[in-house]
């Protein structure tokens, strides 16, 4: 049974799906360019650079795919993209966009699912062979929303073929927006200010992080603050960024610690209507599963 943070994420992103691409157009464009510039850093066995010895198609798992940003970014380097997302509305937009781009549905499609539910180690809808054997699993902006990031990493790595790569873009540690003296903007993608100190400002009482504290329901949040968080998506965030040591530990524990590396992608700005610009320092992290 999904916990409350998962249900809040599903509800929030269902509502966000229709406008997600237009609201984040600049960010998506910049991330797309940076990630494409770094396909060698990611180092998957891309179809263009290293054809698979066994002739199997090169498959990308776009986990927490949203509307498909990473599938569009990396689609040219693989034979097939399969997206999985908690939100049915995001899945619908993903599939609509693939169809609009005239990509055959067998080559790019998404399904609704959650690989990180502790009570459901093998979701029935995701047991088919098509959901295994990925050369790369990519997760864009998803990990800071997961109720159990470590479990998610492990379950995703299970879906990789030997030698497959896990790649993540997300935020370096940053202050919670309510703690952040000089910046009270709100956005699920960027509230507060990316300090890049290499430490996590920690779990704030307004947030939910079952992985670290188990306090799935905040008790001290005011009603007004809660309403604001529900509007801006703050309530869907479980972790305010990841440090390099945390990432290394997570990749290693998940079984993708080989060739682990983190690329600092620099600061990215976010802006929503009527709100101040906010910044996040972003990383691209990658690690490889053992080849045997
Ligand atoms: C910030 S969006 C990122 C979407 C996309 N990857 C991108 O780069 O634009 C986060 C996505 O994570 C999804 N998500 C949150 N929790 C999830 C979970 N446990 N399993 C799968 N998807 C999840 C949300 O539905 C949402 O589509």
TrEMBL record:
Name this polypeptide is given: S-adenosyl-L-methionine-dependent methyltransferase
UniProt keyword annotation of Heme present: no
Disordered: annotated segments: 180-243
Keyword RNA-binding belongs to the record: no
InterPro entries per record: SAM-dependent_MTases_sf
Keywords linked to the UniProt accession: Methyltransferase, Transferase
Family annotation (SUPFAM superfamilies): S-adenosyl-L-methionine-dependent methyltransferases (SSF53335)
CDD domains: AdoMet_MTases
A Pfam family recorded for this sequence: Methyltransf_23
Bias kind Basic residues: ranges: 186-207
Biological-process GO terms, alphabetical: methylation
Highest rank taxon of the organism: Eukaryota
Homology family: Belongs to the methyltransferase superfamily. LaeA methyltransferase family.
Molecular-function GO terms, alphabetical: methyltransferase activity
Segments traversing the membrane: none
């Amino acid at each position: 049974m999904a916990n409350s943070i998962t249900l809040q994420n599903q509800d929030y992103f269902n509502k966000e799906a229709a406008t997600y691409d237009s609201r984040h157009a600049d960010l998506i464009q910049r991330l797309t360019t940076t990630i494409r510039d770094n396909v060698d850093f990611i180092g998957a066995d891309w179809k263009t650079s290293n054809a698979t010895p066994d002739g199997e198609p090169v498959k990308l798992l776009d986990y927490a795919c949203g509307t498909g940003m990473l599938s569009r970014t990396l689609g040219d380097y693989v034979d097939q993209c399969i997206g999985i997302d908690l939100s049915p509305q995001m899945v619908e937009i993903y599939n609509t966009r693939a169809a609009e781009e005239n990509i055959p549905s067998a080559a790019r499609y998404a399904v609704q699912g959650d690989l990180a539910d502790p009570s459901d180690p093998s979701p029935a809808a995701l047991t088919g062979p098509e959901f295994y054997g990925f050369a790369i699993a990519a997760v864009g902006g998803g990990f800071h929303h997961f109720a159990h990031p470590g479990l998610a990493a492990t379950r995703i790595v299970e879906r990789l073929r030997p030698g497959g790569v896990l790649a993540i873009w997300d935020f370096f540690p940053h202050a919670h927006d309510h703690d952040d003296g000089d910046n009270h903007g709100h956005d699920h993608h960027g509230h507060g200010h990316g300090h890049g100190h290499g430490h996590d400002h920690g779990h704030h009482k307004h947030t939910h992080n079952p992985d670290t504290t188990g306090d799935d329901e905040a008790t001290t949040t005011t009603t007004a603050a809660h309403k604001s968080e529900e509007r801006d998506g703050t309530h869907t965030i479980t972790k305010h960024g990841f440090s390099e040591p945390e990432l290394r530990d997570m990749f290693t524990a998940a079984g993708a610690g080989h060739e682990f590396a983190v690329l600092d992608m620099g600061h990215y700005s976010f802006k929503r209507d009527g709100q101040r610009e906010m910044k996040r320092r972003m990383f691209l992290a990658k690690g490889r599963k053992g080849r045997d």
